[in-house]
Amino acid sequence: MCEGVCSFYMNTTLFIVRMNVIGRCVQDDEINNQSQLVEKLREQVVELEELIVTHRKEAESLQAEQQRVQAENDSAKDEACQLMSLKCLGPT
User: Fold this and answer.
1) pTM as predicted
2) CB-based contacts of 46: which residues, under 8 Å, 6+ apart?
3) Distance (Å, rounded) from C-alpha 2 to C-alpha 79?
4) Lowest mean pLDDT: which of 16-20, 46-50, 77-81, 83-87?
């Protein structure tokens, strides 16, 4: 009778140990998968931050160019108005 009970407990103990090992392996795999995912997401964040910096610089450059062109346009308008005034004030 002891043999049967002892055998049952030994088998149960081995089963529990095996399940714990399998559970740990699954947990380790899940931890590894999550770690890889976190690393990929970090890389994507770095890439996006670099894109933001690049686009911000481009926007600043385009804004400076727009201001330069606007100043040239205003200057050309002033010159045109002056020429029109001179023409109108010309010899009568």
Assistant:
1) 0.53
2) none
3) 113
4) 16-20
